Amino acid sequence: MGQQAVAPIHKTHHLDMTALPKNIIKTISIDCVIFGYADSTLEVLLRRRATGPSKGMWSLPGGFVKKEERVLVAAQRVLQQTTGVRNTYLEEVGVFDAVDRYPAWRVFTIGHVALISPDRYALKAGSDSSEVRWFPLGNVPRLPFDHVEIMQVALEKLRKRVRYQPIGFEILPKKFTLPQLQRLYEVILGKDLDKRNFRKKILGMHFVKRLTETDRNSGRRPAFLYEFDATKYGKLQRKGFMFEL
Amino acid sequence: MGQQAVAPIHKTHHLDMTALPKNIIKTISIDCVIFGYADSTLEVLLRRRATGPSKGMWSLPGGFVKKEERVLVAAQRVLQQTTGVRNTYLEEVGVFDAVDRYPAWRVFTIGHVALISPDRYALKAGSDSSEVRWFPLGNVPRLPFDHVEIMQVALEKLRKRVRYQPIGFEILPKKFTLPQLQRLYEVILGKDLDKRNFRKKILGMHFVKRLTETDRNSGRRPAFLYEFDATKYGKLQRKGFMFEL
DNA sequence: CCAAAAGTGTTTATTGTACACCCATGA
DNA sequence: TCATGGGTGTACAATAAACACTTTTGG
Q1: pLDDT at res. B18
Q2: Residue B214, CA: closest nucleotide via C1'?
């Protein structure tokens, strides 16, 4: 976290430099912090490193940027190649630049975040991964490099985002209940919310609309189902709003 | 602004590659947007390029990151070397990565902002600059590369920052009046503020304290002088607050 | 009929916003 | 005495926050 003493670097480990592709920029990498929401818990997507430094450890999906590739495009590609997850809404988190953050040579990494619904993506261990898995946030294995820091900053970013953009569309089923939506917010913010105030706020934004159907397989009193109003949702996503909770 | 068609790059202009230092990372540069506040106007610090692409044009002070240097350190150094300005509180704005943003080869640049008081710094055209000058925001010359975009994003960042951190300490004289502080906020936010509401807010934060002296050389009714309360100011700077104006 | 979660309004406190007049000074 | 900017308080509106009981279902 923050500055560190400058340690000897450029050790250029010759461990197993399994032929890095030719057209990459060796100084700039991407790391993706993909949060998933399922069963009322936040999870993070990790992959086991199949090559390079810290081979065998679980780490954030990441990789190098190509010579003529934009950063966001690289992030999408890298994520897809290592984990099979593609077409997510990634957002830049910042540059991580500690001099010895990567042991083999100096690499600046650009962190990215997304929040997705695990069950909508098929995981597939790709190029540099031997295994891909979701880990509940409370149970994350030891991570290499500065990946813990990147995760923390990413989580803060996500929490901030929730305060000025609607969420849920990409995470909840098409038809969902308000208690479900509330749980989503609670899990992300890490605190309980008042049921009545929450409803007041959400309904006041008008980005969800109530259906006549109810959710009958909950076992208890059925909750009304709601749908996102795509137009209003999109507007709020672009324009932003203030959402104190 | 956003994605662009990928244009042919790597033209490697051999214009006047005035011997780039050996220990730099050619792919990663820094650009600094230094805003100055003086005479109730916002200015930006530019330098005339003495070497490389767009030589002769005014541009943001910038330069490359060294091989074992952290980004923030690089930003301070580059700023000092090109303009003489040093020891400012720089903040990261983001990565600018358009494939052809720099004509000679591909360079990712990390934008930085600071807000300073021009009269506390002596300008000195250094290494890659032939001239250094402040330009009022309304009168900025044509800038090369994506420097206009970087400036815009930096200004937005500054405006956001003003809403959750106190400002003024580094810009106003040790003893200042509330009308002075209000003008500062108005200039940065680009809009007028209500005098009474402004005072209520500021005084409510308790990061300024009123002195018994008044400012007697204003020509009009003397205004009371205030000082920043360093402790409270620092606390708010770290913890942040909500400041709607 | 019991347990469990869904649903529903009101009151109070806090915060934002709009607004108008008197005051101290130098010229 | 006038022009100029400095200083002050209040009322209204909007928003946040606290809070408890009834309803519906499955077992």
Answers
A1: 59
A2: D6
